[in-house]
């Protein structure tokens, strides 16, 4: 089981319609953490939907007691974002110490560095990239189609 982190600012950067959209986002932020804590039983699904068949009940039920962390910030600013990044860096360091691994010197990091060398020139591609797995290709192509910099000529 892996805990899930939820992060939300109290104030929005764009208060539109008396912050209605932000209030909806905050309601969903709070509701998701509550849902993961409570879960939904078969009896609750049946009570909610008297005609639910077993397949629907199977898909709508889930165990609760799922751990979450909720970070509520007054506002997202460079300072609060820096605090979050520092907190996650510290978390990684402490977990590494507990598990007796060097969180900042792993072979997986080295593999990532090697892959980055191949990806770097592809960030200047003018045609769709197809040299990686579908996920990486999709991300690269999205970045390339939305970038603001001028691609360097391929050598």
Automatic annotation (TrEMBL):
GO CC annotation terms, alphabetical: cytosol
GO molecular function, a single term: carbohydrate derivative binding
Keyword vocabulary terms for this entry: Gluconeogenesis, Glycolysis, Isomerase
Pfam families on file: PGI
Isomerase found in the keyword field: yes
InterPro entries registered for this protein in UniProt: G6P_Isomerase, G6P_Isomerase_C, Phosphoglucose_isomerase_CS, SIS_dom_sf, SIS_PGI_2
Metabolic or biological pathway, per its Swiss-Prot or TrEMBL entry: Carbohydrate degradation; glycolysis; D-glyceraldehyde 3-phosphate and glycerone phosphate from D-glucose: step 2/4
E.C. designation(s): 5.3.1.9
A single BP term in Gene Ontology: glycolytic process
The reaction(s) this protein catalyses: alpha-D-glucose 6-phosphate = beta-D-fructose 6-phosphate
Entry similarity comment: Belongs to the GPI family.
Protein name (Swiss-Prot/TrEMBL): Glucose-6-phosphate isomerase
Organism for this UniProt entry: Rotaria magnacalcarata
Lineage per the UniProt record: Eukaryota, Metazoa, Spiralia, Gnathifera, Rotifera
């Amino acid at each position: 089981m892996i805990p899930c982190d939820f992060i939300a600012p109290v104030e929005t950067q764009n208060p539109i319609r008396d912050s209605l959209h932000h209030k909806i986002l905050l309601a969903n932020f709070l509701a998701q953490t509550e849902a993961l804590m409570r879960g939904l039983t078969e009896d609750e699904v049946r009570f909610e939907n008297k005609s639910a068949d077993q397949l629907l009940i199977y898909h709508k039920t889930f165990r609760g007691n799922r751990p979450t962390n909720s970070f509520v910030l007054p506002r997202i600013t460079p300072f609060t974002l820096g605090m979050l990044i520092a907190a996650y860096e510290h978390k990684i360091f402490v977990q590494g110490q507990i598990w007796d691994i060097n969180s900042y010197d792993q072979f997986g990091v080295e593999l990532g560095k090697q892959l980055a060398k191949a990806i770097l020139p592809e960030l200047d591609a003018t045609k769709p990239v197809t040299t990686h797995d579908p996920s990486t290709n999709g991300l690269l192509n999205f970045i390339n189609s939305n970038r603001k910099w001028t691609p360097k000529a391929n050598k």
